[in-house]
Specification:
Blueprint (H helix, E strand, L loop, with lengths): L12 H23 L6 E5 L5 H10 L3 E6 L2 H10 L5 E5 L14 E7 L8 H10 L1 E12 L7 H13 L8 H4 L5 H10 L3 E14 L2 H5 L8 H8 L2 H14 L8 E13 L4
Parallel strand pairs: 1-2, 1-4, 2-3, 4-5
Antiparallel strand pairs: 5-7, 6-7
Helix pairs in contact: 1-2, 5-10
């Protein structure tokens, strides 16, 4: 395991929801509004996590069917418990082997929310999406704008961590995922052969009630920054905590107002 991946622990659904899931639930409906798909279609979701986008698809997209996969058994269990709907099938699956979960040319819409940067072979993942797509199908995905500092609460954490530990800089998402930009995502879609490629930023507020609401998710170990935080000895963790407390913008009522931005992309599968 490399230094840049050793803290990528995505196994606890509850911990993930406390850290990123609550913000994923805000991005998902805005993405679907922009995607603008008709009702009654067959959908496929790559990397469903705990089901934030899945729930939004069922509520807004009104699909005929939805297959949602994720490599984490714990996330799939959480999604099944959270999203009870006969139209959706949650399955443990691999983004690089989608035909194990859906037949070729069987899906009208294939989406991936906040996951593509974690897939080691993104070009192959997009090729797999096209294998299960019907002619003219829509493929859409979105990722956090890490290089642009688009996740302010995460950027604040890593800035404070790097000031105390130079080694933390190599673990930051902006360094690990430099392609998560408007141009980088559009180039990926165009390089995969998708037509009519479009991109848009999706911005949401990430308001924390107080410092404890901000800090607690970083102690739970789900994700790179929480994994790094959990790996620190108690004294180092306390120093990081106090550095963050001093650096964050805090309102008179104790709330911490921050923002997050994702880049969304959509394209059309060529007709055969």
């Amino acid at each position: 395991m490399t230094a840049t991946t050793r803290h990528d622990a995505w196994q606890s659904g509850d911990s993930y929801d406390a850290y990123m899931g609550r913000w994923s639930r805000q991005v998902a409906p805005r993405f679907l509004d922009w995607l603008g798909m008709a009702e009654g279609l067959d959908w496929f979701e790559v990397g469903c996590g705990t089901g934030a986008l899945s729930a939004a698809i069922l509520a807004q997209g009104k699909p005929r069917s939805l297959v949602s996969i994720d490599p984490s058994e714990a996330f799939i269990a959480k999604a099944r418990a959270s999203v009870a709907d006969p139209r959706v099938s949650f399955q443990v699956g691999d983004a690089l082997a989608l035909t194990a979960s859906a037949s070729a040319a069987s899906r009208d819409v294939i989406v991936a929310g906040l996951v593509l940067n974690f897939i080691p072979d993104r070009a192959e993942a997009l090729a797999e999406m096209q294998r299960i797509a019907r002619p003219g199908a829509t493929i859409g995905f979105y990722v956090w704008d890490y290089p642009g500092g688009g996740v302010e609460f995460m950027r604040a954490f890593w800035q404070a961590a790097a000031a105390l530990d130079a080694g933390a800089r190599d673990l930051t998402e902006d360094r690990r995922f430099p392609f998560c930009t408007r141009d980088g995502m559009a180039d990926l879609a165009c390089g995969a052969g998708l037509a009519s490629v479009a991109t848009v930023p999706i911005e949401i507020p990430t308001l924390f009630r107080d410092f404890d609401d901000y800090w607690l998710p970083f102690t739970l170990g789900a994700g790179p920054a929480p994994g790094y935080c959990a790996s620190l000895d108690p004294d180092a963790r306390q120093r990081l905590k106090e550095a963050l407390r001093a650096s964050l913008p805090t309102r008179a009522d104790g709330a911490i107002p921050l923002q997050a931005r994702a880049w969304a992309v959509r394209g059309r599968v060529a007709t055969r």
